[in-house]
Amino acid sequence: MSSARTLAALVLTAALLVGGCERSPKIVKPSKAFCDAAAGYEERITAKKPPSVAEQVQLVEKMAATAPKDIKADAATFLDAMRKVAAGDTSVRNDPAVKRAVTDVNRHYAQGCGLYTRKGPL
Fold first, then answer.
1. pLDDT of residue 122
2. Helix/strand/coil for 121
3. Backbone angles phi, psi at 51, to 5 degrees
C-alpha cells in the first residue's frame, strides 16, 4: 500500500473511531468553511477512485486554512504530513503525532460539523 493510501486509510480509520476517543471534553463548532472543506476531503477520499496525493494536499490545505484555533496546529501537522508524503517521505506513515493530529481534525469535523451527536463526556 502506498504511503498516500496508508495515510488516507488512517484518516478513514480515525473518522470511524472519532466518537470513542477524546482529548478535550468540548468541541467548539467550526466555521462553515472548515466543515465544507472537511466534507469535500471526506467525499474525495471515500470515492471509488481515490484522489492523487497532490489533490489530497490541496484538500488538506483548505482544511488547514479554515481550521478553528483549537485544532489549527493539528491541521498544520496533517498538512505537513501530506506534503511529506507527496515528496516521497514515508516516515510519517506511523508517526503517533500525525495520527493524533489527524484524529483531532476528524473529531472536529465529525462532532463539530454535526456528523455525530454526543450524548455524554465520551
1. 52
2. coil
3. -70, 155
Residue ranges per structural domain of the chain = 3-16+29-112
DSSP-derived 3-state class of residue 113: coil
pLDDT per position as a tens digit, 60-85: 999 999 999 999 999 999 999 999 99
CB atoms inside a 10 Å sphere around CB 3 = 19
The Cα–Cα gap between 91 and 68 comes to 27
> Are 112 and 30 a contacting pair, CB within 8 Å?
yes
Quick check: 15 and 104 in contact, CB under 8 A?
no
Joined grid coordinates for residue 91: 516516515
Query: In terms of DSSP H, where are the helices of 18-114?
Result: 32-45, 53-66, 72-86, 96-107
User: What percentage of the chain exceeds 90 in pLDDT?
Assistant: 59
